[in-house]
Design a protein that fits this description.
Layout (H helix, E strand, L loop, with lengths): L6 E7 L6 H9 L7 E8 L5 H5 L6 E5 L4 H11 L4 E4 L5 E2 L3 H12 L3 E9 L6 H12 L3 H7 L12 E3 L1 H6 L9 H11 L4 E12 L5 H4 L5 H19 L5 E5 L3 H12 L3 E6 L9 E2 L2 E4 L12 E3 L6 H11 L8 E3 L2
Parallel strand pairs: 1-2, 1-4, 2-3, 6-8, 9-10, 9-13, 10-12, 13-14
Antiparallel strand pairs: 4-7, 5-8, 6-7, 11-12
Length: 336
Amino acid sequence: MQTEPTVSVILPVFNGQPYIQAALRSILNQSIANQIECIVIDDGSTDGTLGWLQQQSNITLIQQPHRGLVPALLAGIERARGPFIARMDADDISQPQRLARQVAYLQNNRFDLVSCLVEFGGDRSTQAGYAHHVDWCNHVRDEASISLNRFIESPIPHPSVLFRRELLNRLGTYRDGDFPEDYDLWLRWLEAGARIGKVPEVLLRWNDPPHRLSRNDARYDAASFHTHKAPFLARWLKSKNPHHPDTMIWGAGRIARRRAAALTDAGIRITKYIDIDRGKIGHFIDGIEVISPDDLTGPENGFVISYVGSRGAREQICIALETLGYVAGQSYLCAA
């Protein structure tokens, strides 16, 4: 009689011959390997990956024409038998204790999804942007911080997650579209009340090869991110902003105004722009006055959304607002 697995690992691959062996080995050598099924979806590889996978006897192999990541994920999920789904990419490496630690952490803390801290697998001098993102993800680690920072960017590395399979039926599954499928899923699940946490240990090496989707896919364009996030943020503001629908925007530059316009389209009314540029302060942009941070006296002025995303500036804005009595998640929020 075949034993049902505890964890179904979903591992899509397309032309992964240089690295699939190491990634797969790191899953098959997990400390709870006897409780795992590894479902590998070959998404139409043309480089010899499929031939090598066909020689492996300890995986469930799905072959399909090249259709992209989401169809591959859905095909793997359909075949999964375990109550927990774990993601893995074909170019990353899981530590031997990863899945055991995640299952225990999820169950002990009654989470719906858990991630973990990740090691940056790349050259920090030439891939500084991605390294900074990894560092930020590792900084955003407790449940409250994950929820609060979700509108900045995704704080959950996709290949690091393990979640309850029943969520897919209850809260929705991956969708194919013009936005990263994982970030879309986390936003939908968090909005629906899912509890997301992180094991506070480095359990995955998150590599940054030249072919990574976030480097080449238009869905990862910053403008697309903010357009897609705006309705989620607007709904969040409706429930959290005591001044709803009135909101002030920190940042009066072109990019911040474009992001604010997406919020306006979602039903939010922009009452003021806040900026340090003396050339803008006191003027009106599209009928909205630009004020100085010095004009703020406290939360009674209104809820503030910061759309300033330059490195270091976000932290300075948080300090300035909190000095005036603003509280993250209650009277202000960073969204870039």
